[in-house]
Amino acid sequence: MLTFSSLHEQDSVFFYMNKYEALKDSMITEQTLQAVAELQIKYDTEKKEKEIALLNLENERKQSNLDRLNQLNHLSELQLQQSLMENLNYQQSLQLAETEKEKQQSKIQLLILNEEMYKQSKLHAQRLNRLFSIGYIIIIVALAFTAFLVFLAFRNKKEKEKALLKQTAAELNRQLMEMHMKAINFQLNPHFIFNCVHSVEYLLKESKTEESITCLKKFSNLTRLMLESMSKQDIPLEKELEIVKAYMDLKQARFDKPFTYAIDKDPSIDVKTTMVPPLILQPFIENSIKHGFINGEETYKINICLRTSDNMLFCVITDNGIGYMASRNGMKRVSGFKKESLGLKLTEDRLRVINQMKLCSAFFTIQDLQTKDIGLNGTVVSLSLPYISVV
After folding, report:
1. Cα of 147 vs its chain's centroid, Å
2. Could you report the per-residue pLDDT of 252-300, keeping only the tens digit for each?
3. Cα(62)–Cα(226) distance, rounded to whole angstroms?
4. I want to staple 343 with a disulfide (CB 3.0 to 4.6 A). Which of 247, 274, 283, 334 is the partner?
5. Strands across the sheet with 312-319, in order?
6. Contact between 343 and 191 (Cβ < 8 Å)
């Protein structure tokens, strides 16, 4: 009741009720009753309508609340779903983070393992390096010791070889000097000296004083040159040619069969610096004069040609005598055959020793002169010596 009075509405139930009470007290008539009845009906109707309105309002309020509640429920569901999604995402993120953490831990463990393996391998490598270093040192020491032993053995071998070479060289030098002495002794034999002295005596008896003096000078010069070269292993080619010239000049003075000689030399050969064994040419000259020039009607010639090539000195001695084979056949019937053979054999032995000492190929050949001219004979001697030039 208080609620309706507070509304101050004239058409309200409370208003008509008050009216009803007033009319009820003042007049109670049929009309009044009818009016009251109508008012009652109207009141009831209004009341019901108000109740219905209130109910509708209440229903609307409840529906509004229900709608709001539904909205709240829907929002709650959405929030729940969002929360579930967020939770799911969080769980997934957490799972991913856990997985990533596990991966990181695996990587860390792998790195730790790799680091440990690296340390182990480094330590192993250091140990191997130490072992290798020790091995290298041992090998180097062993090699050095072996090299030292080899060096000692090599040095001892070289010293022995050097001593042997010195001994061999000394022996070869002794043999060569002995052969030089034999060659000189062979040339200065008593028979040769006697013939020279006899030639001088013959010239004096014939009152050929100048010829005898010249012959004596040539003999003394030849003797001097031979004696000077006696103790030498090599002499200048100039000295050797002087000996050959002195020997042929002396032979021309006492030889009853005249002959001439000529010496042809390559301009590139320096006779002062070119060295040859002493008395190496004289035995071949003597053979030409003694065994090739036996017929007195011809004019004999001796040509000496000197050339050089490939570190060798070549000497070619030619004559126009009876020839090599004819002279050999004639030598078998003369007393000088043994001496002549000894001279050639001595020259062969000297060249053999020279080859051993100088590691060269010195040799000589003797053959008949080959010519197309009918009736022209002669001998060719080819001598090859090592070309030695000293400054």
Report:
1. 22
2. 776 666 789 999 999 999 999 999 988 889 888 888 888 778 765 568 8
3. 165
4. 283
5. 259-265, 300-309, 312-319, 379-386, 363-368
6. no
